[in-house]
Amino acid sequence: MRFLVVLIMAAMLVAAVFAADSYAARQLLRADPDALPADAVLLRFAVRRGRPLFETRCAVCHGATGTGDSAKGVPDLTDNDWLYGSGRVTEIEKVIDYGIRSRNPKAWNLAIMPAYARPQPSPGDKNIQPLSPSEIDDVIEFLMRQQGRPADAAAVARGAALFTGHGGCYDCHSIDAKGDSAIGAPNLSDAITLYGDGSRAALYMSIAYGRQGVCPAWINRASAASIRELALYVYSISHPGAIQNGY
Amino acid sequence: MAAGVLIGLILAGYSLFTARSASTLIVPAEDVALVNQQPVSRADYLALLQTLYGVDLSHATQEQRRKVLDDMIREELFVQRGKELDVASTDPDVRSALVNAVELEIAENAITSQPSEAALRQFFETHPDRYVSEGVMQVRDLVFPAAALGELPHEPAALKRAIGDAGMLAHLNGRDSGKTKGEEFYFAAKIHLGDELFAAARGLANGEVSQPIPLSDGIHVLDMEQNRHPVPFSFAAARAQVLSDYRNQAVDKLKLSGESFLRKRANVLIADDLR
Question: CA-CA distance, B27 to A174, in Å (whole number)?
Answer without folding.
Answer: 44
